Amino acid sequence: MFRSILAHILIFTTLTANFSQVFVRAGFELNENYIVSKLCINRDKPQMHCNGKCYLMRKLKQAEQKEKNRANENQRSLYQAGIVVEKLTFNPYMIHIEREYKPELPFRLPAYAAEIFQPPRV
C-alpha cells in the first residue's frame, strides 16, 4: 500500500517537472479572462491586442529559468570530488599534516566466478 502511494507520488512529480511549460499554458488557458483583466501589463492599451500573452511569455521564461537551474543543480550533484584522507604525524617538536587525494574508491573484481555465483540451495 505504502509503496504504491510512493510510486504514484514519484511518477507525478517526475511528470510535473518535465511538463512544466504545458502546465503554464494550461493555467493560462483556464484563467485567460482573469489574466487579461487583472494581470496583463498592457490591459490599459487594447489596441495592442496583447490579451495576456505578455504574462504568458513571462511565466514561460520563468519556467525555463527554473528548468535551467534544476539542470545546473543536477550537474553539480553529479560532480564527484576526490576523497581527502588526512594523515596526522605527531612529533614532539612539530605536527605534520599530510593530505592524500584519491580520485576514486578502490575497486577489485573477484578472482573467481565462484565468489559471485553460488548454486541454489535446496
Order of helices and strands: HHHHEE
Strand line-up of the largest beta sheet? 1-2
- Percentage of residues assigned to helices: 40-55%
The largest pleated sheet is described as:
2 strands, antiparallel
- Tally of discrete structural domains: 2
What portion of residues belong to β-strands?
Answer: 5-15%
Mean pLDDT: 76
Short summary:
The chain has 4 helices and 2 strands. It has helices spanning 2-18, 20-30, 32-39, 53-78; strands spanning 83-90, 95-102.
Question: Overview of this structure, please?
Answer:
There is one protein chain. The protein contains 4 helices and 2 strands; from the N terminus they run ααααββ. β1 and β2 form a beta hairpin. The mean pLDDT is 76. The chain folds into 2 domains: 77 residues, no CATH class; 31 residues, no CATH class. It is α+β, with helices and mostly antiparallel strands. α2 packs antiparallel against α4. The two termini are 32 Å apart. Strands 1-2 form a two-stranded antiparallel sheet.
Structural key phrases:
single chain, 122 residues, alpha+beta, two-stranded antiparallel ribbon, 4 helices, 51% helix
Question: What's the topology here?
Answer:
Elements: H1 2-18, H2 20-30, H3 32-39, H4 53-78, E1 83-90, E2 95-102
Antiparallel strand pairs: 1-2
Helix pairs in contact: 2-4
